[in-house]
Amino acid sequence: EDKVVQSPLSLVVHEGDTVTLNCSYEVTNFRSLLWYKQEKKAPTFLFMLTSSGIEKKSGRLSSILDKKELFSILNITATQTGDSAIYLCAVDSSNSGYALNFGKGTSLLVTP
Amino acid sequence: DAGVIQSPRHEVTEMGQEVTLRCKPISGHDYLFWYRQTMMRGLELLIYFNNNVPIDDSGMPEDRFSAKMPNASFSTLKIQPSEPRDSAVYFCASRVGLADGNEQFFGPGTRLTVL
Q1: Tens-digit pLDDT profile for residues B67-92
Q2: How many CB atoms lie within 10 A of CB A79?
Q3: Is any Cβ of chain A less than 8 angstroms from the Cβ of B55?
Q4: CA distance A15 to chain B (A)
Q5: CA B106, B111, B114, B115: dihedral to nearest 10 degrees?
Q6: DSSP A95
Q7: Which residue of A27, A51, A85, A112 pairs with A2 in a disulfide if CB–CB is 3.0 to 4.6 A?
Q8: B56-87: string of b/e by CB count within 10 Å (b at 16+)?
């Protein structure tokens, strides 16, 4: 059975800190890994990763995939209180058709 | 672009009642997904449709749950009879079938409370 495991489950940091969120997966026929940010409502798309070693970057957020070791990290530099949210990792594999298999998420709280 | 639209946003009902959740996908998207999110289990897929046809309903918990997609712009998820353990946030998401990758766009969710 496909598995997606995120760590840590929750994290509290101070504004300005840098955080690293982890996502490991065990799937067959991997296609892509996606990161979403969920505040009080719907998950919103951040990144999609398909190739190892190629960093995706958007402002203070960046992410990279390691297909050999089966994990991805999401980095947030110079955190702000607006970064407080649940960060979800999801894996797309041909085993599950077009459905995404989500991890349980990392809850990030950035304090002033 | 209005995004994925869901209604109602909140629903409180009593055990045993029928509940119907509604979703309008983004125009032109030919895949529609229903997810359920709880603290204990996270975000779980219930069912998804392609071109209005159910493709995978293996995540539907039991016969009390049913979903339909009568046309490309509307889907319903029905729970009958509802139970307290069905309390969760239900999300609908859609995507374009031919796009690279599998970026899904989520609606705002329906928070269901069954008393």
Answers
A1: 999 999 999 999 999 999 999 999 99
A2: 21
A3: yes
A4: 26
A5: 170
A6: G
A7: A27
A8: beebbeeeebebebeebeebebebeebeeebb
